[in-house]
Design goal:
Elements lengths: L3 E2 H7 L5 H9 L3 E3 L2 E2 L6 E2 L6 E3 L2 E3 L6 E6 L30 E3 L7 E7 L2 H8 L7 E8 L4 H9 L2 E2 L2 E2 L4 E7 L3 E8 L6 H8 L4 E9 L2 E2 L8 E3 L2 H17 L22
Parallel strand pairs: 9-15
Antiparallel strand pairs: 1-4, 2-3, 2-5, 5-6, 7-9, 7-17, 8-9, 10-14, 10-15, 11-12, 13-14, 15-16
Helix pairs in contact: 1-2
Length: 268
Amino acid sequence: MPLERLQKVMAACGVGSRRACETMITEGRVEVDGKIVTELGTRIDADTQTLRCDGERISAPRRFYYMLNKPKGVICSQKGDPERPRAVDFVPSRVRDHRLFTIGRLDVESEGAIILTNDGDLCHRVTHPSFQVSKSYLVEIEGAPDNETIAKMRKGVWLAEGRTGSLEIRVVKRHRNRTHLEIRLNEGMKREIRRVCARFGHEVRRLVRVSIGPVDIGVLEPGETRELSPEEVSALRDSSEVVIRLGSKPPSKAFHRTRSRRRTPPQD
């Protein structure tokens, strides 16, 4: 696991609020591997280092990672809605009370890959635009855009919030009245894919996210969940760290390489 600030780890373990934990540290009440720590900037690995407060062992909370194939009509919000189920309602009941976050929000009409976890650091790394973790979608639109229109869609358009970044688009199949596209983006304005397609007169009939970074939805049916493997969790973390190490994400063989220019979290 990556190093995290001591007070953040303590708060996640239920010792107290982050402010209260900072006070405990500065008062010399906290030990890391048997040594008293009073520096608030101290970073630790909660999985390998031993923590104590006032002599009592602090146990790190178990982390959960689940992939959900979100059905249409399900909301990603944690707030209850008597008329709509939440994404968190689909994970096993024993983990629902562990403050799960959704990695990669989808609007109520969209379907596909959602990751639910109580690992706040991983959630931040995968969702924050600066880490450039891509997400891939299968999109069915009305009509049959020509190559010139597809090229314009790739370049981005102006929306109310500003100009969209470049999209990686591959035409999967064209019919007379509808077209299937595969679209990849690193960042996204709210409902970006739907709004970009509508700008060119092609309403989205169905939008399914098929992967988040290197982790794909696999054979999950709508409403089904599965626990991510340790290898998948590591791959997700590595997909965000490659930007830090190399300055950019390696190009994909399936798509044209693009650079996104916006700084708002993805919500398509």
